[in-house]
Amino acid sequence: MQLYSPYSSAKWLLQFRQTKQCGLISQIPKMISSMQEAVPLISKQLEEARIKAEEWRIQRELEHAIYLEKKRIDREKEACSASRTELKSIMAQWTEDKRLEQFFHQAESDAVTLDEQQKVQVMECLQLVRQFLSEDTAVERLLKWKTPKERLDNWNKK
């Protein structure tokens, strides 16, 4: 016969064998006393297992909190980088827009010196160029630009 702890975290096992000289029935008092003696040991093992499980849980929670903090920091860095990159692009677009405005202004000024037919052709051509190049201006893009905080808020909503 085998006696053991019913708890997986408590390792207690005792075997009793029936022999010709000693039957199992005669060993019942010894079995009972062995079980009574094992109670403190099993209780101690259960408490140790509970403490270890609690330590393990706390460690996992700590690791999870560290992971979440790193993830938050990475998202903040990513949001700042994306905002900075977009802002630099807007600045470059702004320079290009100003250059185009200067081109159109100068072309219109130069067209004044041409005869009426050429002047009309140049103005029509400039109109077509404006339509062809009509896309978001730097100002329109600046109005759509998002701060790092706005980006984080949008990411957190998803």
Radius of gyration: 41 Å
- Termini separation comes to 61 Å
Q: Spatial order of the strands in the main sheet? A: 1-2
Sheet having the most strands: 2 strands, antiparallel
> Shape from CA axes?
rod-shaped
Beta percentage is: under 5%
- Helix tally? 4
Helix content: over 70%
What structural category characterises the helix and strand content? mainly alpha
Question: What can you see in these coordinates?
Answer:
The protein has helices at 28-111, 116-132, 138-144, 148-157; strands spanning 2-4, 13-15. By secondary structure, the protein is mainly α. A two-stranded antiparallel ribbon has the order 1-2. Strand 1 (2-4) and strand 2 form a beta hairpin. Helix 1 (28-111) runs antiparallel to helix 2, helix 1 packs antiparallel against helix 3 and helix 1 (28-111) crosses helix 4 (148-157). The mean pLDDT is 91.
Per-chain topology:
Elements lengths: L1 E3 L8 E3 L12 H84 L4 H17 L5 H7 L3 H10 L1
Helix pairs in contact: 1-2, 1-3, 1-4
Quick description:
The protein has 158 residues and is mainly alpha-helical. The protein has helices at residues 28-111, 116-132, 138-144, 148-157; strands spanning 2-4, 13-15. It has 4 helices and 2 strands, in the order ββαααα.
Task: Spell out the key features of this protein.
158 residues, mainly alpha, two-stranded antiparallel sheet, 4 helices
